[in-house]
């Protein structure tokens, strides 16, 4: 039997593939990070399936149950709340458990990913980049990791919550005040916004907001990778994305 790792929209419900909809319609069981969240997506596409929870706090135990379902002859799909499973989301432990059993195929169903979405709209960030995901919530560890990322010399991508984004950007400025930033907020949603510029200008732009809303994907480009000659500009696409379904 097969375990399908299914990418789902990061915001706009139209950003799902025909293949993903077909797979979710055909499998016997859908495992997901949050059954309430996934049920909304499935309802939008008229899909009615048994859902089981498999999230960061129960993934190891839930993987055993999913493996048992596969052994019973059931095909299972797994999807996280948004984007591609296993990319700063649960799914990796599940894949490892099923692969270790060596009895079933693991089939990726590609689709939306916040990091790739932002990179596609970022322009020249150099020949390669490092995907870091979420940094440590502890300032000391965060600074130490940022120092290592800057020392590597590549552009790097992080994810951040609206509650901690300013602190993280200020830590980035502390490590390198000359880097450039491409910050994507609410990507693919109705109020999508992409802010570009040097680290100081991006911080100042966000500080003008009464309240910062939405999850962030952020590309940080070290000075060595910065070959832009024009003045720093803010590129906003606020309200330009099609309204989410």
Explain the overall architecture.
- The protein has 245 residues and is an alpha/beta fold.
- The chain has eight helices and ten strands.
- The strands form two sheets. The chain has a five-stranded parallel β-sheet, sandwiched between helices.
- The chain is elongated, with a radius of gyration of 20 Å.
- The two termini are 33 Å apart.
- The model is unreliable at 228-233 and 239-245 (pLDDT under 50).
In short:
The chain folds into 2 domains: 108 residues, Tetrapyrrole methylase, N-terminal domain (Cobalt-precorrin-4 Transmethylase, domain 1); 112 residues, Methyltransferase, Cobalt-precorrin-4 Transmethylase, Domain 2 (2-Layer Sandwich), CATH 3.30.950.10. The chain is α/β, with parallel strands linked by helices and 245 residues long.
Topology record:
Layout: E1 2-6, H1 18-26, E2 29-32, H2 35-44, E3 50-53, H3 59-71, E4 76-79, H4 92-101, E5 105-109, H5 114-120, E6 129-134, H6 139-152, E7 155-160, H7 165-175, E8 180-185, E9 193-198, H8 199-207, E10 216-221
Parallel strand pairs: 1-4, 1-5, 2-3, 2-4, 6-7
Antiparallel strand pairs: 7-10, 8-9, 8-10
Helix pairs in contact: 3-4, 6-7, 7-8
Protein structure class = alpha/beta
Strand tally, please? 10
Shape: elongated
The residue ranges in which pLDDT falls below 50 over 5 or more consecutive positions are: 228-233, 239-245
Spatial order of the strands in the main sheet?
Answer: 3-2-4-1-5
Notable characteristics:
single chain, 245 residues, alpha/beta, Cobalt-precorrin-4 Transmethylase, domain 1, Methyltransferase, Cobalt-precorrin-4 Transmethylase, Domain 2, 5-stranded parallel β-sheet, 10 strands, 21% strand, elongated, disordered C terminus
């Amino acid at each position: 039997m097969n375990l399908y790792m299914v990418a789902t929209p990061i915001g706009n419900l139209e950003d799902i593939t025909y293949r993903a909809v077909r797979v979710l319609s055909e499998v016997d069981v859908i495992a997901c990070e949050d059954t309430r969240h996934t049920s909304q997506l499935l309802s939008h596409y008229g899909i009615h399936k048994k859902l089981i929870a498999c999230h960061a706090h129960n993934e190891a135990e839930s993987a055993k149950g999913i493996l048992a379902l596969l052994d019973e002859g059931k095909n299972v799909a797994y999807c996280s709340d948004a984007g591609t499973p296993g990319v700063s989301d649960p799914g990796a432990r599940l894949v490892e458990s099923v692969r270790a059993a060596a009895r079933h195929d693991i089939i990726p169903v590609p689709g939306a990913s916040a990091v790739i979405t932002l990179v596609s709209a970022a322009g020249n960030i150099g020949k390669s980049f490092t995907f870091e995901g979420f940094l440590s919530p502890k300032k000391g560890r965060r600074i130490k990791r940022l120092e290592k990322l800057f020392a590597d010399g590549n552009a790097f991508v992080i994810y951040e919550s609206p509650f901690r984004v300013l602190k993280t950007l200020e830590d980035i400025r502390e490590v390198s005040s000359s880097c450039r930033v491409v910050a994507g907020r609410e990507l693919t949603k109705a109020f999508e916004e992409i802010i570009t510029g040097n680290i100081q200008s991006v911080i100042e732009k966000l500080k003008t907001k009464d309240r910062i809303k939405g999850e962030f994907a952020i590309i940080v480009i070290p000075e060595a990778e910065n070959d832009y000659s024009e003045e720093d500009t803010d590129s906003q696409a606020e309200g330009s994305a099609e309204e989410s379904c």
